């Protein structure tokens, strides 16, 4: 796989680096973070990292020793340089399969030996559902955060810029990774693709970071002006705050990353992407005057002063206009499901 054009990445400032010598320091850094940061060597003592430092084969053997006997979802294909993206017809340029991990690793080893083969990518594999003991022996202490722990394994790949709703701590266990990051407000300059036809559930940038077409995507120059980059070695970690955009490249023939996702909001709250999708269904194609009204309603009830919006209603009768609880959120969700099922 070709490395990113140095003319593009060399001029980008590096992501801020910090030190986190203990769990309490990391907890404080995560709680205060308003932008991404890198922690060098955060997980250098993991047995998985140490196995990978010896060889890719030892890393695979270590992971396989903890794998459950089940089928693993895997993506196979992509462009010649490992880019997992759309094809000319806007279908995915890779196919999804299910196979045993030993079979998948054998295919990866064949590609290593031959210097070729398709991109092979296991993305967001739940550590608790697919492995026994792997998380216990290789994990970061995140305190009270109820984090989802996932592993990402594959050959050289690159994933277009996208964002995630949760906060993210991504730890490189084998191979090198390059993260190119863009602030939340850069989404219009990234030229996002479809929201209902995505490689992994999140809209992605249509711009090829290795060869950006600035005639077609002129505002991408502004996104690059706001970007930062982090090149990570095994044992390093990067924190990506919620909704920050990130382009991710796995740079070596074999790569493993372990990441943790968590939200500061309660799990029983709804997903913001669902609200956006429903707004596309219910509001976007209304007449302009009606859309203007609903914009005002959203500003009043959702983005404005929550207490002022309900101050005139008796406290015992405010319902979902009061701060939501698990019970009122459940009732609201049940109501929405009934309405959407009509």
UniProtKB/TrEMBL annotation:
Segments forming domain JmjC: 97-277
Domain of life: Bacteria
Pfam families: Cupin_8
UniProt cross-references to SUPFAM superfamilies, sorted A to Z: Clavaminate synthase-like
Name this polypeptide is given: JmjC domain-containing protein
């Amino acid at each position: 796989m070709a490395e990113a054009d140095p003319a593009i990445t060399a001029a980008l400032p590096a992501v801020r680096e910090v030190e986190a010598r203990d769990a309490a320091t990391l907890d404080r850094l995560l709680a205060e973070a308003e932008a991404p940061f890198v922690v060098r060597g955060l997980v250098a003592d993991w047995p998985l990292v140490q196995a990978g430092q010896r060889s890719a084969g030892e890393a695979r053997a270590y992971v396989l020793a903890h794998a459950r006997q089940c089928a693993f979802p895997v993506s196979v294909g992509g462009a010649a340089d490992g880019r997992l993206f759309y094809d000319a017809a806007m279908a995915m340029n890779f196919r999804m399969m299910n196979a045993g991990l030993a079979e998948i690793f054998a295919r990866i080893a064949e590609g290593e030996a031959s210097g070729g083969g398709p991109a092979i990518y296991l993305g967001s594999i739940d550590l608790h559902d697919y492995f026994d003991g792997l998380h216990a022996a290789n994990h970061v202490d995140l305190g009270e955060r109820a984090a989802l722990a996932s592993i990402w394994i594959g050959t050289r790949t690159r994933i277009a810029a996208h964002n995630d709703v949760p906060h993210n701590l991504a730890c490189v266990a084998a191979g090198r990774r390059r993260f190119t990051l863009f602030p939340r407000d850069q989404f219009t300059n990234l030229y996002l693709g479809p929201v209902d036809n995505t490689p992994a559930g999140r809209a992605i940038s249509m711009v090829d970071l290795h060869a950006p077409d600035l005639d077609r995507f002129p505002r991408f120059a502004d996104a690059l002006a706001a970007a930062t980059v982090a090149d990570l070695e095994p044992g390093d970690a990067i924190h990506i705050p919620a909704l920050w955009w990130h382009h991710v490249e796995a740079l070596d023939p074999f790569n493993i990353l372990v990441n943790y996702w968590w939200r500061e909001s309660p799990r029983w709250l709804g997903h913001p992407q669902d609200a956006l999708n429903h707004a596309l269904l219910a509001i976007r194609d209304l007449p302009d005057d009606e859309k203007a009204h609903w914009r005002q309603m959203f500003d009043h009830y959702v983005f404005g002063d929550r207490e002022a919006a309900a101050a005139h209603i008796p406290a015992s009768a405010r319902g979902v206009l009061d701060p939501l609880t698990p019970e009122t959120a459940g009732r609201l969700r049940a109501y929405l499901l009934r309405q959407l099922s009509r």
